[in-house]
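<goal> How does this chain fold?
<sample>
Here is the protein in question

***
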Amino acid sequence: MSESYPTLQQWERGPRIAAIGGGTGLSTMLRGLKKYTKNITAIVTVADDGGGSGMLRRDIGMPPPGDIRHCMEALANTEPIMEKLLTYRFTEGTLAGQSFGNLILAALNGVTGSFEEAVSQMSQVLAITGRVVPVTSADVQLEAVFENGAKVTGESQIAAFKKEQDCRIHHVNLIPERPKATRAALDAIGAADLILLGPGSLYTSVIPNLLVEGVAQAVAQSDAPKLYICNIMTQDGETEGYTAADHLEALLSHGEPGLLDLCLANSAPVQPGLLKRYREEDAAPLTLDRERIAALGLELVERPLASEQGDFARHDPDRLAQAVLDIYRSRAVRIFRGERRYILEE
C-alpha cells in the first residue's frame, strides 16, 4: 500500500465517499480518510438513547448528538484547545457525564430550530473536511428481536437484554418503521464514487441506517463500489460468536439485493495483552470464513489494519484509509457522463 499523501489538487478532486455507520468505528475511519480526499459525507445513525445523548434526547426532545459529534470531531480542522473543549466531559453536578460538544449541538438545535441545520452550522464552526449528516431527522427507537421471539426497545438496553436471553439477535427494527431519510443522505449516496458501511457495532451502528426509508435501496442502486469494513473483534452483548460471514448475512438480510460488492477485513494479529482482556469480556478476533463469504457472492480483501498501539483492538486510521483507497483505485475506472462519476470495472 502506498503511504504517500495526495497533493492538494488530488485531495480536492479525490473520490466522493459516502461512509455509513456510527460510533467509534466510523469516526476512526474518517480520521484517516480525510487525509486523502475532501469529498467525504458521513451518514450517521440517530438511534442512540444512552449516556449524554440519551439525556439530551429525553430532556429537550432533540435527536441524539453523540455519534454525529464524534464524526465531526474526527473531520474537524481546529486548534488543540477547541478539540479539548469538544471532548470535555463534565464530572460533577447535573451535567455529570455530559460532553461539551453535545451541549454546543443542543444550543445550535435551539437557535436554528432544526437538527440538520445545527449539524451544518457546527460543521462550519469546526471547519470540517467534508460533511456529516444524520440519516434521518425522525425521533426513532431501535428494537431488537431475538431468535427466541423476545423483544427489547432502546439501543442502550440491547446488550444487557441479549445476555439475559442468551441467544442471538434475529433482526432489528426502527420505531416508527421506515422513517424518512434526510435529503442530504440520499443525495450523498447517489453522488458517491465509493460507498462504505462500517466499521462499527453491527446491529446498533451500521444496520439502523439501512432501515431508514430509501437508504438501502439507494446503496443497492448505486454504480459505485460498495464495501463493508469488518470489525476487528466480535462485540460483547451484540455479536459474540459471529464470523465475518455472519456479519455479512445480517447486513444483507436487513438490506436489498446488490447492497455490497466486497468486504475488507483485518489480517494483522491483535496484541496478546488485549486478547486476554477481550476474552474475559467474551469477545474474540473476527473469524474469516472465506468459503461462506465467497458463497454470498462477495469478494474478501484482507489487509493488516489493526492498530499496534492503544488499549483497544481498533483499526489504525491511516492503514484503513490506505486500504480503502487502494481497493477503490484498483476497481474503478473514470467514465464521463456529463459529470465526474466512477463505476465498477467491467
User: Anything to note?
Assistant: The chain is about 40% helix and 15% strand. The radius of gyration is 19 Å.
